Batch of 3 targets.
Target 1
Amino acid sequence: MREVAVFGAYGHTGRFVVAELLARGFVPVLSGRNAERLKALAVAEGGLEARPAAVDDPAALDRALAGTAAVINCAGPFADTAGPVVEAALRAGVPYLDVAAEIEANADTFDRFEERARAAGAVVVPAMAFYGGLGDLLVTAALGDWASADEVHIAYGLDSWHPTAGTREAGAVSRRRRGGRRVRYAAGRLEYRDDASPRLTWQFPEPMGPREVIGEFSMADIVTVPSHLDVPDVRTYMTVRAAEDIASPDTPAPVASPADGRGRSDQTFLVDAVVRRGGAERRAVAQGQDIYAVTAPLVVEALDRVLSGRVRTTGVASAGEIFDAVDFLGALSGHLSVELSV
Ligand SMILES: NC(=O)c1ccc[n+]([C@@H]2O[C@H](COP(=O)([O-])OP(=O)(O)OC[C@H]3O[C@@H](n4cnc5c(N)ncnc54)[C@H](OP(=O)(O)O)[C@@H]3O)[C@@H](O)[C@H]2O)c1
């Protein structure tokens, strides 16, 4: 069975996911709260099925998932959508994957559903996306035969970041939940702080080289990595230019580059994952184009692996725990270039 429900299908990321599903022979079933926008997308994609559903309408969510093999949730803020859509997936008995980049919402998914999902033999994969998923795969691959590490660092080398409305809204919801504080993962737990984030120079691999970054610019990896790896400190970093882009209300939303056949923007990224144990260091680096677009091959590859039984566990699990990280990254060679120095 190849039907896959996409909740939030007409959003910027949802559209990339729908296109990727079609490219890989799945049949997307379009869902979300706006019936008109769903219908327009269904027609534009050559006659897909549209099943409108709001998150406060469990019966409509059940209809949206009926007969599908899995659901991919692309509708954020996930603080609002993850709980109801995971519940619907558990009722339907199908796997759930999402692209949430909200630290607290991701932590909630682990806390609220871990026991029930495991007991039911269900699979729930939160943050199966650029933030949260890719970093976790890189860290897990870099660890190699190490069962633990003293420190994990993931530096995001983005040349720019033109955020979607969904990114801005998710950020605003997370900031409200934190009462304006910032969060980091240190000494084995999420820690909320009032001081300013450090600013430092990060030595990215060539050709990027040294760049100014905001330290402890925390992304979903501070939930996904420690969810399954024995590591007390997980730090993430963001190039200052990209951090300034998303802080400014004037930065435009992403647009497709006319030169790109896949609808990607010109944005480029380099993700530098460094793990340290004792005096030793291992590294995994990924490079590619457009953080929203690359989320689609990440989540659809994950879906394919879940549906074909290529998983290492059940319950709520992040990418690095549930998949063979090195094999997974290798399968994305058409979308990412990855270098491992283990
Ligand atoms: N982890 C990552 O790397 C990563 C990558 C890509 C995206 N994301 C996240 O994914 C989310 C979507 O991003 P986007 O780029 O696709 O943004 P977008 O283009 O603004 O789309 C947001 C989508 O979510 C829907 N939505 C919002 N609240 C909803 C609710 N309460 N019920 C039902 N639908 C709701 C919107 O529907 P309406 O138009 O009807 O409001 C729209 O379809 C964001 O939270 C973003 O942070 C994360």
Target 2
Amino acid sequence: MNVVTIHTDAIIQVKVPLPFPLRWVNAYLIRGSRGYTVIDPGLHTPEAEALWEQVLQEQGIAFEHVEQIVLTHHHPDHYGMAGWFQERTGAPVLLSETGYAQVQLLWGAEQPMSQLLLELFTRHGFPAAELDEMTKHMVSFVELVSPQPQVTLLREGPVRLGDRVYEAIETPGHAAGHLVFYDAEAQVMFCGDHVLPQISPNVSFLPQVEENPLGAYLHSLQEIGRLEVKMAYPGHREPWQGFSARASELVRHHHERLALMEGQLSAPQSAYEVCRATFGDRLSMHQMRFALSETIAHLILLEAEGRIQQVDPEADRVYYVAAASQ
Ligand SMILES: [Zn+2]
Ligand SMILES: [Zn+2]
């Protein structure tokens, strides 16, 4: 596997290792006359540190040549090394306001998101006996995003990356506040995890963030799928052509999954039961967290569309049933 791929005079792809089945996250170095922009530097692990030191040395890039670190979204596999880079370069770290709000919920003082998620999962049928393990899993991410950077807020609109001006476009769904960077003239997009080749990006419900994340995702996929994109540079897997077709495929995939889950609810079930029926019962804690959040996101959309309903909206535990079977 090539760790470094030089795509154009200005765009260098760097595969930063991940200790997850995804295997790596793509960071991009964009060369410009004022220095380098680093997009999504990766998860903070000793392996990633060693890789970056080696890659920068081989490419002849000193830390002081880095002018900015730009994040498509706040997920740890993209944001985690931003603070490490900032310590060495003094460069600003740019992230959307919604992304930064989640950084504070997830890894700020008291990390309120852990508790909110555990309460959410419990309400949706996650077994009490496994809560400790889930808590440990969530806490384990803090060191993978530390030290945390000083963040400069990045808004929708023009943003200079290297010597070209891109349009930052908010594309919620996979992550609230997710931004893609689009160069309309060159028809190039850095699409983060919004649209990925081969992989269906996770769409999670998170308390206090977005009421209907899958609804937001399908809407933004349809919007973004209309843009002319010759080359898309994703957060995972390889840069590819055929961005619009892939966006449509993802919309279809979610409609199929919605129909499948609706079909499973001819008798009342919790989100946890629907999750195991959909994703299987051999998930690691890491996979379970995302599978359950994704199931909840689907059920919320089905409920918003009136296709399923809560059996007893007043009860502590949420059970859903298909509207058609009432
Ligand atoms: Zn992500
Ligand atoms: Zn990612």
Target 3
Amino acid sequence: MQTELSTTLGVEHAVFGFTPFPAVAAAITRAGGFGVLGAVRYTAPDELARDLDWMEAHTEGLPYGLDVVMPARKVEGVTEAEVEAMIPEGHRRYAARILAEHDVPPLPEGEVSGWRITGWMEEIARGQLDVAFDHPIKLLANALGSPPPDVVARAHDRGIRVAALAGSPRHARHHRDAGIDIVVAQGYEAGGHTGEIATMVLTPEVVAAVDPLPVLAAGGIGTGEQIAAGLALGAQGVWLGSLWLTTEEAELHSRRLTAKLLAAGPGDTVRSRALTGKPARQLRTAWTDAWDAADGPGTLPMPLQGLLVAEANSRIQRHEVEPLLGTPVGQIVGRMNSERSVQAVFDDLTRGFEKAVDRINRIAGRA
Ligand SMILES: Cc1cc2nc3c(=O)[nH]c(=O)nc-3n(C[C@H](O)[C@H](O)[C@H](O)COP(=O)(O)O)c2cc1C
């Protein structure tokens, strides 16, 4: 699974893997792909530094990257406490009511919410970048918009390529104009923040919009056949996020959540604003239903919704409250039916890709 881009980057397979877990990111890189560690959950720079040091020690000199979340619209010059104060009381009461209805206990004494999604406040993302630029990362990706010009310049000065996710050709052109090197075309079926255009339609549109910039196809890719499809549509590689959640190296810390993922079908996700205030695909749960309900207060804009639900999510995860327990995940969850090592996943991807190529060659009369 080699393309011009994978050759330039020095990886065996043009398969990029996004994951919040360092052990998974390192395993993806060791398996011949390009592991990208998600930074959003790190609020303390020294924790990120420690995990990046660990990745360096476990990737055998092979390339890997970091993904930060810097929203296009910045939250600047305000403290987290000031942002918290903007959350309406009615929304707080509604969150408390859902938790009470499901008997969700508080966090144990002295345990603080480890699930604060504040990484997308400019100040915190910038702290993460300072750490990242001190480490030998080869790729910096940004989830929500083009990174600011000074960040792109700092990355380029250090020989780091910059990638950004795009949900439409318009986003993609914006990234190109901002000096981004690689555009990730993130389709509707993907886990996490998504636009409204499916990968099958989006990929060739983005390829045409930013030509000759390399494009990675993302969203709904979990088999080698789907990788072949993405490359056939003009992508120079693929970017996978959901598939790694049920690998043996993933540290979900919840057997119940893993079981839910393994049991879920392709129709068991929803694109909801419940998690962050922006549409993000995730497992459909009683929690997402409550926030999406017509008779509820609805969700708040980013970053308020993320702050509103952070502690609740920690409590739900800590106590593994089944009906409310969820995670960002894409429609490919329907194919995530067994726990395997990252290497075993790569072996399957390679086999599926070869099968797809053979099949197309036969159809084209070449074999
Ligand atoms: C659990 C999870 C968390 C994610 N968090 C982020 C994130 O912080 N930053 C980001 O750029 N993308 C994030 N994504 C999206 C992935 O980078 C990737 O684009 C997406 O998962 C690809 O589609 P797929 O889920 O169908 O593989 C997340 C995806 C998942 C499943």
